[in-house]
Amino acid sequence: MRRILKIAGTGALVVFIFLSAVWANLAIAYQLPGSSAVRIGACLVLNLIALAALVAIVRRRHWRAVLVYAAAYALLLAWSGSISASNDKNWAADVVHGITGTVDGDRLSVRNVRNFSWRTELDYSERWEQRTYDLSKLRSLDLFLVYWMGPSIAHTIMSFGFDDGRYLDFSIELRRTQNGQYSALAGFFKTHELVFIGGDERDLMTLRTVRNEQILLYRLRTPPERARALLDWRIILTGHLPDYLYEHAAVDTRIPLEELRERADVTGRVDERLSEVEFSSRIREGVPAPR
User: How many CA atoms lie less than 13 Å away from 57 in the CB half-sphere?
Assistant: First the structure.
């Protein structure tokens, strides 16, 4: 039994060093400032230290090499953790402003509501607006799931609806710089900051159709007082949620889940030519609302 435990422990240590070295190489490649030669050199040094540690573990000797790797990896973690977000970069036009706001009683005043007109992803008319909403007239909370990378990964957008037919939508997005390239992998290594975008519903949905992404809309069973609390505290749901929402009766459960998914697909209804109220009304036609 002791021998089995020793073999298992050795195997676990080898796997840890291998996986941590992979992560460290990616961190250096994406985070380390300087030229490509500097990043390649740093990766080579790290890999030599990791290789020496692996050899020491397999041969069960020269454990100093393992300690050297542990120290190098700890320094790398400390350096990576010290990298902080910045608000002062040459941001792309669609993420240059994050939404801000104040609540005074029932009056919600928000600044930098994005209301772009999108012809293509690179051709648009830019508008940032200041708007006011009456929180006593907040009536609904809806969930958009935007599919851009297969059925298991969706971007979430929360939509707060008011009595006057207007909707205020919120989306947490990667903040790109001008001429900067987006990389989902690089995003795990602090190459992109995040920004809280508040937008006109036409803007956020039209951009998704311009990108040929699929949009599903789920009407949620949320009392106005709870929707107001979520809006004030900016709690945003994330992940792949339809099954969970259906299981907890947060959506219309009078029809099968698969039918709900089909009726939730509003991609083909996006029409930027409509007014703000007409757009939001049209996109919700036929989408089941919970009772």
Answer: 24
